[in-house]
Amino acid sequence: MKKKILGLICFVLLLSGLEFLAATQGPTLLPSDVLSGEILEQQYQGGKWQYTSGGADATANHRLVMTQVTYIDQEAVHERITEILDKRINVDWIKSLVWLGIFTTMWFIGFKRVFSVGILCLLFLYATTFAWQQEAALLAKAHREDEGLITMTYQVSYNGSWTTASQIVPWQASQGILQLPDVAYGTGIYTPNP
């Protein structure tokens, strides 16, 4: 009975991890369509655009409202990649401990009791770290090319309610030019980093 309860708990954790991934990924936006508003120059340090009002309402499906756009400069990319690598090392360490726990417990208790629960817990860890791997790949590319990134957070309407999602895209920070979201997706205030 305990084995079934543990298996059920791990299965629920796995599903919640996959649901978290699906919710945070959202639809893919084309930055050239959304970021087609005012053009700002001499913005090498990056900054943040924050939604204030306007945009679409939730009466029709797949309407889009930008809630925040963060322009991350080259220096911040270098700092963020260090954080991601540290986080990944910690998660890899936890995965190794779970694998060790599975094999050690199987040795003493038996294969059938431990294997399914341990594997479900590992699947949860792998599912929740998938988004980190995607972000790490974008950070690594921006780091190699000595450029910045844009983090776009937005809401998409579906059946009268909003779902929040985000996306990370490259930004050529070395040119010092950035483009704000089009007013069709909401108006906001841009604040450059100091």
Relative strand content? 15-25%
The largest pleated sheet is described as: 5 strands, antiparallel
Number of strands: 7
What is the N-to-C succession of helices and strands?
HHEEEHHEEEE
Low-confidence stretches: 16-26
Number of helices: 4
Going across the biggest sheet, name each strand in turn: 5-4-3-2-7
Question: Mean pLDDT, nearest integer?
Answer: 77
Terminal CA distance reads: 59 Å
Principal-axis shape: flat
Rounded to the nearest angstrom, the radius of gyration is 21 Å
Short description:
The protein is α+β, with helices and mostly antiparallel strands and 194 residues long.
Structure description:
By secondary structure, this protein is an alpha+beta fold. The protein contains 4 helices and 7 strands. It has helices at residues 2-25, 31-34, 74-108, 111-144, and strands at 39-40, 47-53, 64-72, 148-158, 161-171, 178-179, 187-192. The protein has a 5-stranded antiparallel sheet with strand order 5-4-3-2-7. Strands 1-6 form a two-stranded antiparallel sheet. A hairpin with a 2-residue loop joins strand 4 and strand 5. It is flat and about 65 Å long. The chain starts with a helix and ends with a strand. The model is unreliable at 16-26 (pLDDT under 50).
